[in-house]
Amino acid sequence: MKHPTPLTILVIGRGRMGQSVRAAAEERGHSVVACWGRKELAKGVWPKADVAIDFTLPESALTVFEACRKQDLPLVSGTTGWEAHRDAVESAVRASGHRFLWSPNFSVGIHLFRKALAAVESQLRGHGFSVRIDEIHHVGKKDAPSGTALALASDLKEAGREGIPVGATRLPGVPGTHRVTWDAGMDQIQLEHSAKNRSGFALGAVQSAEWLVSHAGPCNNILGMDDVWG
Q1: 46: which DSSP letter?
Q2: What is the pLDDT of residues 116-136, one digit of tens each?
Q3: Is 195 helix (H, G, I), strand (E, B) or coil?
Q4: CB 67 within 8 A of CB 191
């Protein structure tokens, strides 16, 4: 379905996710002005664009953020593995008012999964259940555990859980599966999300870019899926 307001989008990252984002953007009627790799980013000859969408490697994430901030180009990023620098990035966002939206996972299904996770955890609290997280990703996924698994652990930590085990497995051809297991002496409860392909991640990133371009502010923190979807 086409979006009523066509955008010009710069895709940063030429991998499988970058190609999926390009396809999703064009399907919604947007124009992808370029699909950049490291060489184009280093050269710094910027095309005119409304927003950039970044799916690169962890070691490139901060470079992409700084470059887009200096260009005052709104940035949607799905790159994970840089979160140790979050405080510094958040400080730069506050100082500049840069529109920066980041999520470890742009799937609407994962967004709803996290809300369901919080609801289940609230009901099981105090009933003697332990909890663990297990995730499976494709062998090309560099960070383990994934950013999504760490976000799930953070959700549980906010609910009062400590020392949550997180298992990470890498297998060929798996876009992403996340399972949360609550276990007690007589019962086991599981909540699982499995991505069938990358199209859900790509569509969510493009929809986030549409939202970010129209977002009037304030832009004093790193935005996320709760801002987009509520």
Answers
A1: P
A2: 999 999 999 999 999 999 999
A3: coil
A4: no
